[in-house]
Structures are given as structure tokens and as C-alpha cells.
Amino acid sequence: MNELNDEQLERIDQYLADELNATERAEVTSLIANNQTWKEAYDLRIAAGQVSKNVFHRSMRKKFTELDQATIPRRTIQPIWLAVAASLAILVSAVLWLFPTQDSNNLLAEYRTFPNIVLPIEKSGGEFTPREKIYQSYELGSYDQTITLFAQLDTVQTVDRLYLGLSYLESGNYHDAYTILDEVRASSNTRWSHVADWYQAWLLLKQDKTDEARAAFERIAKVPGHRYQTESEEVLAKLKSR
Fold first, then answer.
1. Tell me: the pLDDT tens digits for 202-242?
2. Average pLDDT over the chain, rounded to whole?
3. Which of 45, 75, 135, 230 could anchor a disulfide with 119, C-beta 3.0 to 4.6 Å?
4. Which pTM was predicted?
């Protein structure tokens, strides 16, 4: 059986950690769905417990780093140049953290699209339900198509409204995205209302409405047990000098 190289395995790690942009994520999704070697490597990483679908609400980057250090033997022996590069990366990150930028555009580089955790793509071929097609379209980054397919659903749940709002956000329709996310924020289902809260704050930042975005992140940071309380505090620290 062919094996993936370190760069390809790293790509899967980034995919699982939700660190890819929409185009990169769609590319990896296609490879996993259509290439047996990629599919087996992906399944092995899931089986190894590197990523759980039930912990997307936590800091994915932090979680991945901890698991990476604990469970991936291939990283235990590294070329000297790679170790030096890693040290430099840590140093640069530390400098950026100590001296946060005042430019919200730089902060937007940390923005991550919310993953499809409802009906993720796990296999290729076969018949899919209308709802499965919608969420797979979202996962592939086809947001305009996702919006069209949502309009064809007979029954719409709170989670559907959330992903519809997120699709508008990713497609750049901030007006409709804000309206729908605001609706989901009012829901009693905190599993989804917290997500809507978080992405509505990012939406404001994307529109360069920094003061409103700061107020939104402050609101989240003050809610005990909010899914994105810690992450909001981190964003606020970077916006502090603005």
C-alpha cells in the first residue's frame, strides 16, 4: 500500500484541526473521499484519537498541539533545520503575542470557518438525503449552492438556520448573515446560539466595525461557561490597543 509523505500527513492534521481555508479544505475533502490512501490515513488518525468531533468548541489549535506532541511518533526525530525553524516560529509567535497589532485585518488572518459537524463527508458514492447533500456542499465550500439547497428543505431546525447564516457569512452576504445569526443567538439551544454569537462578532470585525465587534466579544467573554469565552478574551487582548 502506498503511504503519504510527511507533508501530506501534515495536511490531514491541519484538516482535522480546522486550520485550512475553504479552498484547501475542499481539496483535502475530495482526496479523502476519492483516494483510498488518503482515506486510510485519515481513518487511522481518527482512530488514534487525535481529533474528536465532539470537541470542536474547544481551542482546536491548542488541542491539536497537545495531541500532536503526545501521539505522533514521526515528529520525535526531526532534522536540525526543522527544529531550528520550529524554534524561530515559536519566537515570532511570542513577539506577535507580546506586541499585538492594531490592524483588524491582521487579526482576521486567525479567522476559521466553522466546520461541518452535523453530517460530515465520510464516504464516497451512495445515495444521500437532501440534508446530507446540503451539509456536504457546505463542507466543500460551495456556499451559494448550500444556500439554494437550504431553501428547498421542508423542515428547518435551529442548526439549519445556523449553517444558513454561516453560508451567507462565507459567501460575503453580511447583511443576511447578521440577521440569521442574530435569530439563532436568541435560541435557547446554547450549542448553536454560542456559535452564532461568536461568528456574528467576527462578521462585525470583517466589516471593519471594530467597536461593535469589540463589544460583541466582550459580551461573550462575560458569559460564564460560554463556548467561546476564552477565545473571546484572547481576541480582546489583541484588540486592546486599538
1. 999 999 999 999 999 999 999 999 999 999 999 999 988 65
2. 79
3. 135
4. 0.58
Q: pLDDT tens for residues 179-192?
A: 999 999 999 999 99
Residue found by looking up cell 486510510 in the block? 40
